[in-house]
Design brief:
- The complex is a heterodimer of chains A (about 170) and B (about 650).
- Chain A is of the alpha+beta class and about 170 residues long.
- Chain A contains four helices and seven strands, in the order E-H-H-E-E-E-E-H-E-E-H.
- In chain A, a hairpin with a 3-residue loop joins strand 3 and strand 4.
- Chain B is of the alpha+beta class and about 650 residues long.
- The longest helix of chain B has 27 residues.
- Chain B is built from 21 helices and 20 strands.
- In chain B, a hairpin with a 7-residue loop joins strand 6 and strand 7.
- Chain B has a seven-stranded antiparallel β-sheet with strand order 7-6-5-11-10-9-8, sandwiched between helices. In chain B, strands 14-13-12-17-16-15 form a six-stranded antiparallel β-sheet, sandwiched between helices. In chain B, strands 1-2-3-4 form a four-stranded antiparallel β-sheet.
- The chains are: A alpha+beta (about 170), B alpha+beta (about 650).
- At the A-B interface, strand 4 and helix 4 of A face strand 18, helix 19, strand 19, helix 20 and helix 21 of B.
């Protein structure tokens, strides 16, 4: 049995370039993990008691499926899940892959709208918008939009939030 | 809050006063401040390390000679006094032009400007010494602060001024928020006006029947909340607020101090009077309240001394004395007092203490913790009183140092009813308001205490106080589906079972035994956690509840909801569950309805906010593809959209 949350899917996908960004991030994360695992297992003494050597081998082999998941599976999965939409009254986002998070932020409660572009994002022509309210839990972000779209959306949201902000906290 | 006022708390060298403030309104702190500062060496406390260091060096070099110490002491006092006088001369404050302006400093001048409409709350606090002197510290909390908190602190003004200032600041701030329609009155003018004599009593005027410091407490209780209410329905007394229920006790003791303290009947602090004198408030008190044109004052809760007995059931209170003891032991160790000579201790440890010794020590420690927790709770909460004065809730408390916290009702978004296991077993609870900008509501730390509406008390009383002070919530909570019980049980048991298995591999059996016991304990814990889960709503508020050891129910006004988050892990998805976070600008910022049925999660959000969430609900007939037939979706987001005119509420 599997029951999804009965919310409709937000209308828009993120930029396809986000795929490459997630691949790069996944590869980087995997490299770090792999470095730690290899480093630690090399540093261990050679004459470990019974389950020791088996665990070491298992840990090293585990790196292979981890690489597949981090570099191939997760980015594609994310790209299929991540969506966003600005409705008349709210910013609505869905993100995640194994675990999913839906966020609904009423435009009237928006306090700030920021656009950020990290180094990788700049290379790929992407930008993220973070939409903040008085509560951290009530804030959201739309990640990896085409830079121009992000700018337009941020501008639009800022104007509208200003126009309706009567109940901000 | 969409003002573009300059940021509060900007400070730095300033040549003159901003034009908006009428220089005539500038006031000095009370002269008695100097005395208080000298006695508490407050000027030197900032360099406390230096003082301690000096003393330590003196001690190292040839021990503490009496003469040397005396000279050092005198020097400290002289420097402290000089610093205090300079500080007093150079510190002024004023309210005018919509701002509170505090100017201070000799070499490094600083000017703090707090726009009145940014003021979130005003706290008036008086330490025991300050109460003896009849002065109090006023602390102003302003909006848009970071963790640093206090924007402006005036220590100290006379108790009378403190109260005036608080009223002026809160009223002005509210007026500016709400526009001229709200409660009014010439606010600024009051600051300069003299305080009616007798209301605050002469500093240190001895109450007729109160012993020692306690007497001065009541006499100098400038912070006293006038409980006098003009209207007949709630004459100050036993018919009072819902929380009142005729618990006499502490609050009434103050009245016994006589007519000199008209309107200060919270001036409790009278250990002798706590026995539950049940005098009706002197009519003079009511008259005084009216004559001074105070806003209506309604008592919402009054602490009954008996409730102090709940203290040992609260971890925070129970651990406080042990922590103090630990610190004391550390100190003793540092000074190397021969409490127990080391070889005796060593012998005791080597031979192994007898069982009777261990039991005796345990009993002693427990007794000490229990007594200590009650003492701690007494010091913190003595004569706690919650009143409503116009648009403000005022909580006052404390045995040695009285602390008064004012919360603007406009900023209260709801409340948290905390029932940790111990309190729940005794049918007790703790009530905390969720106030925007006041920080988390864990109710234990100093910050948490500021929002407390009832520090300890029977759950029924706490609910009544919540209903009277914030809003009533009587709707039943919907239980969460059985799948949620499986998840609670699994999460309480599984980690320990895993640990047991992990420890069994190398054959560490004692560890396995402990892990198994913990796993077994996880069963009732998980079941109780499930029993605690619930969510509900009525036409004004939404509520979520969770937890076992730290159960807490949060009731949040609908207008306080600033957003929604729904989370669904892979496991939750398989179980058809989701966790909904109700976001708010108050308290911890978000409260979870854990493991709700996925459909119920959406139902809850839709019921609270149909206009915004409604269009996002997936219609049963339509698949995900129907998303494109959007309800209420704005035009292409890539294009700037003109602000729609139908927005707002």
């Amino acid at each position: 049995m599997s029951t999804d949350v009965p919310l409709r899917v937000p209308a828009d996908r993120v930029s396809p370039a986000a795929l490459w960004l997630w691949v790069a991030e996944g590869a980087l994360g995997w490299l770090i993990v792999a470095g730690v695992v290899v480093g630690v297992t090399l540093a261990l003494p050679g004459d470990l008691p019974a389950p020791g050597p088996a665990l070491v081998t298992a840990a090293r082999w585990l790196l292979v499926p981890l690489a597949v998941v981090a570099i191939a599976v997760e980015p594609v999965w994310r790209y299929r899940v991540h969506r966003w939409e600005v409705t008349r009254d709210a910013v609505y986002t869905l993100e995640g892959w194994l675990n999913r998070t839906w966020r609904i932020v009423p435009v009237a409660r928006i306090q700030t709208v920021d656009t950020t572009r990290g180094p990788l994002q700049q290379v790929l022509g992407l930008a993220s918008i973070s939409v903040r309210t008085a509560s951290h839990a009530g804030s959201t972000s739309i990640k990896h939009l085409p830079a121009q779209t992000a700018e337009a959306v941020a501008h639009d949201l800022g104007m509208r939030a200003n126009a309706v902000r009567d109940e901000a906290t | 809050m969409s003002r573009s006022e300059p940021v509060a708390g900007r400070s730095g060298p300033v040549a003159g006063w901003p034009g908006q403030v009428d220089p005539g309104a500038r006031r000095r702190l009370d002269v008695r401040t100097v005395a208080s500062r000298v006695l508490t060496v407050s000027a030197l406390r900032k360099q406390w390390g230096l003082v301690v260091g000096t003393v330590a060096i003196l001690g190292l070099r040839g021990g503490f000679r009496a003469a040397g110490l005396l000279v050092a002491l005198v020097a400290v006092l002289v420097v402290s006094a000089a610093a205090a006088v300079v500080e007093w001369v150079r510190t002024t404050y004023a309210v005018g032009g919509g701002r509170l302006v505090v100017e201070r400093g000799l070499l490094r001048r600083s000017l703090t400007v707090v726009p009145l409409d940014r003021i979130r709350g005003v706290e008036v606090q008086a330490s025991a010494l300050q109460r003896l002197l009849g002065i109090a510290t006023v602390r102003v909390d302003a909006a848009a602060t970071g963790r640093h908190g206090d924007e402006a602190e005036l220590d100290a003004v006379s108790a009378a001024d403190a109260r005036e200032l608080r009223d002026v600041l809160l009223r002005e701030g509210r007026d500016r928020h709400a526009g001229p329609a709200s409660t009014g009155g010439p606010a600024v003018g009051r600051l300069g006006s003299g305080e009616p004599a007798g209301v605050l009593g002469a500093p240190g005027a001895p109450g007729p029947r109160l012993p020692g410091a306690g007497a001065a407490v009541a006499g100098a209780e400038g912070l006293g909340v006038g409980v006098a209410r003009p209207g007949p329905p709630r004459a100050p007394g036993h018919s009072g607020g819902p929380g009142d229920r005729g618990h006499g006790g502490a609050g009434h003791a103050g009245e016994a101090a006589g007519p000199a303290e008209t309107g200060t009947w919270v001036g409790a602090g009278s250990p002798g009077g706590s026995g539950g004198e049940r005098r009706a408030a002197a009519p003079a008190g009511a008259a005084g309240g009216i004559a001074r044109g105070e806003p209506d004052v309604v008592v919402l809760a009054r602490f009954h001394p008996r409730w102090l007995l709940y203290a040992p059931l609260v971890g925070g209170y129970l651990l406080a004395p042990l922590a103090a003891l630990g610190a004391a032991a550390q100190l003793l160790d540092d000074i190397r007092l021969p409490v127990i000579s080391e070889d005796r201790l060593g012998r005791l440890l080597l031979t192994g203490p007898r069982l009777s010794t261990i039991v005796l020590l345990a009993v002693a420690a427990l007794t000490l913790a229990v007594i200590g927790s009650v003492v701690t709770a007494t010091v913190a909460n003595w004569a706690f009183t919650l009143t409503r004065r116009g648009g403000t809730l005022v909580a006052e408390r404390g045995l040695l140092s009285r602390r008064q916290v004012s919360l603007e009702i406009d900023r209260i978004r709801g409340y948290a009813l905390a029932q940790p296991l111990g309190l729940r077993a005794a049918g007790a609870a703790r009530l905390t308001a969720l106030v925007t900008g006041l920080g988390p509501d864990d109710g234990e730390g100093v910050r948490g205490r500021r929002g407390q509406l009832l520090p300890l008390g029977p759950a029924a009383v706490a609910r009544d106080v919540a209903a009277a002070a914030v809003l009533p919530f009587r709707a039943p909570l919907r239980p969460h589906p059985p799948a949620a019980r499986r998840r609670r049980l699994g999460r309480a048991v599984a980690p320990w079972l895993l640990l047991a298995v992990g420890l069994a591999i190398p054959g560490f059996w004692p560890g396995v035994a402990v892990a198994v016991v913990l796993a077994a304990l996880g069963v009732p814990l998980g079941l109780d956690r499930y029993a605690g889960l619930g969510h509900g709503l009525d036409d004004r508020a939404v509520s979520v509840r969770s937890g076992s050891l730290r159960r807490s129910q949060v009731v949040l006004e609908r207008r306080g909801v600033v957003g929604w988050t729904v989370r669904q892990s892979w496991f939750q998805r398989r179980a058809g569950l989701a966790t909904v976070t109700v976001a708010t600008g108050a308290g911890t910022g978000g409260y979870d309805a854990i493991d709700v049925d996925a459909a119920d999660a959406v139902r809850l959000m839709t019921e609270v906010d149909p206009r915004r969430v409604g269009p996002l609900v997936r219609r049963p007939a339509a698949g995900p593809g129907a998303a494109e037939s959007d309800h209420g979706r704005s035009d292409l987001p890539a294009r700037p959209v003109a602000p729609p005119t139908t927005l707002g509420r």
